[in-house]
Amino acid sequence: MGASYAFSPIGFSGIVAGGGDTQDARYSTSLKYRYEVGDLHAAALWQFGGYEQNNGSRGAVEGEVGGDIRKLGPGVLSMDIIGGYNRDAVTLSLSGAPTNSAGIPVAPLLPQTMTATISDNTNVMAVAKYVTGPLKLYAGYEWMQFAPPSDPQTAFTDIAGNFVCAGCAGFNMTNINNTAFSAPGNKDKVLQAFWIGARYAVTDQVDVMGAYYHYDQNNSALSAANVAACNVSAASKNFCQGTMDAYSFAVD
Fold first, then answer.
1. pTM for this structure?
2. How far apart (Å, rounded) are the C-alpha atoms in residues 252 and 243?
3. Which domain holds residue 153?
C-alpha cells in the first residue's frame, strides 16, 4: 500500500517511518548525501539542531545501502537496508484522568495530561521489491529499540509550538517522562514490524492492491509491580507485550 494514510498502518501512524516515533518521520533541518554506482547505491543523513528547529529529536543519523538485481527470473529485485539513531526522541501522548479540586476523578475524561516520553531510539530496516510485468511484490521488516534518553529533559517547546515541562499537570496539563524505558522497573522496549504486499495492474488505469502487516512488542517490565500490571485484561501500559495484525485491500 506504499505510504497510504487510509490503508496502511505504516503510513497512518508514522512509527515505522520514524524509527519508532511518528514525530521523527520528517526532519526539518538535515543534510543528505546519496551516491550511485550502476545498480548499487548508498546514502547518509544527518539531522542537526533539535526541538528549537522544529525537529522531533535532539539529533539523528541514518545510513542506507541497496541495489537492484536485474534479470532475476522474469523481473527485477530491489533491496535496501536502512539503519538509524534518534537521540532524545519525543513521543507525545495523552495520559491520566482529570480530577476536580478535591482530587476526585471526573467525567468526561478530557482534558488529559499531554505527556512527552523521551527516549534514544535505534532502528534497522530491511525492505525488498520484486517487479515483473504488471505484478509488484513487497516485503519488509524493521527492528526498533527504545532506550533511556541521553539527556533527560525538564522543559522544551514541541513541534506544534506547545510548551511542555516535567510535573506541570497543574500548570498547563503537560508532563515529561524520562524513565519510561530501563528504569525504574523496566528494560529497553523493542518493537518489530513485518509486512508483505502485492500490487497488480489489471489494466493501464486500474491497479489492485493487498497487504498484510504484523507488529510485535516485547514485555519490557522487570519489577513485580509492572509485571502484574501487564497481566490484567486489555493492559495498555507502554511496557507491556502486545501484537497487532492488519490487512488491507484497495482498487485504484
1. 0.86
2. 29
3. 9-98+111-251
